[in-house]
Amino acid sequence: MALPLIISSMTGGYAKAERINRQLAEICAHKKIGLGVGSQRQALEDKRYHRSFSVVREVAPDIPIFGNIGGAEVAILRDVSPILRLVDLIQADGFAVHLNPLQEFLQPEGNPNFRGVLAGIEMLVKSLSVPLIVKEIGAGLSNDAARRLINCGVRIIDVSGAGGTSWAGVEIVRRKKAKGKKGSPDADVFWDWGIPTVNALKEVCGLKKEMPPFQVISSGGISNGLDIAKSIALGADYAASARSLLKALDHGGKSAVTKLIEQWAWEFKGAMFLTGSRSIAELQNQKLVSRV
After folding, report:
1. Rounded to whole angstroms, how far apart are CA atoms 292 and 289?
2. Which residues pair with 70 in a beta bridge?
3. Looking at residue 109, what is its pLDDT?
4. Alpha carbon of residue 175 to chain centroid
5. What do you get for the CA distance between the two ends of the chain, in Å?
6. Pairing relationship of beta strands 34-36 and 5-7 according to DSSP bridges
7. Domains in the chain: how many in total?
8. Which backbone phi and psi does 94 adopt, to 5 degrees?
9. Strand boundaries in 137-201, DSSP class E
């Protein structure tokens, strides 16, 4: 990777997703950064849109790519064969389990049954030939949650804190649009639920001194190169972003995304220069100064 940046899991499993994932993968291959695909649950159900996922490896043979499935699906796994098929589908270098209890709780059709998710994660850690990533999707991970994951053998954690896309907000809007449904209480109080990204980074990266070695991805509101630099100064190894890059793709195509990544790279290098950091490791060890 030329830059500690990942285009985070976004989409797949429907007709238009093939074009989006192809374009994102082509950009990542050109800029030498990582890419995660959206939830592959649909690919377990039928083969109709498999190519919306597999296209990423076709056009980006040399970058880190990771697959993705939800915690609710992992909680009911009896063996790893379904996940192995998803890994093979995109020739993944890693596989992510996304934990989205808030979203599942708020979805009218959601599945908030996460009983067994830790056991499922541990089974995947032991059985997959690629690293397992566990990520939140906008509500952040706490010190205690990260500790449990590390004790299960997870060695890559994406904190995905509050501050970026609010999936709670998305589901609250959806609930209001379907509000004739019986037994659907108002959920507005959960709009801002979650651990802010900075706090989540401090909670999780603070474990690096006492737990087995693991890596941290910072996501949840990453929108420029300084955000990447600050994340790494707080202990992250990589940063990941979705919304800003998807909006750029929607408004200006591949050239707009490429230009935005180049802007972020320049900003990131500027922060390294201004802090005298010759490497990522040196930036991780810079003394933090808070503004009063």
Report:
1. 9
2. 98
3. 86
4. 24
5. 36
6. parallel
7. 1
8. -160, 170
9. 156-158
